Amino acid sequence: MASSLTCAGVIWAFLSFLCAAASCVGFFMPYWLLGSQLEKSVSFSTFRRCSYPVRDESLQMTVMVEQCGRYASFQAIPSAEWRICTVVTGLGCGLLLLVALTALMGCCVSELISRTVGRVAGGIQFLGGKCSCGQGMGM
Length: 139
Hints:
Keywords: Membrane, Signal, Transmembrane, Transmembrane helix. By secondary structure, the chain is of the alpha+beta class. The chain contains 3 helices and 4 strands. The chain is elongated and about 65 Å long.
């Protein structure tokens, strides 16, 4: 198994993959904000929610749906800021995962990653990390 990476490059590849996986899991989990509403525990993130209120027209009152799910549509996300955060965070996670998988392939294929490609990939990772890390700033 030939590699185009140095020992530091192999460590970078595996750490990149672990960080990208953690970012993606965090993006898909609905536990960004925790609280309670109508005496029920609720949680939500930019595009997923657990235990949310709905209006029951037959009972003429608001009831809590105690299940997790995503919003029915992109427009159903509560605010424009949360929609922007969903797109930016998703793009950041995608960039991080793309670079991490490319780096892991570099562990198995010789001449896949040159010094220049490594620097460009590091820059893309930095950009992806900035997109993902900025997700909690305005919330």
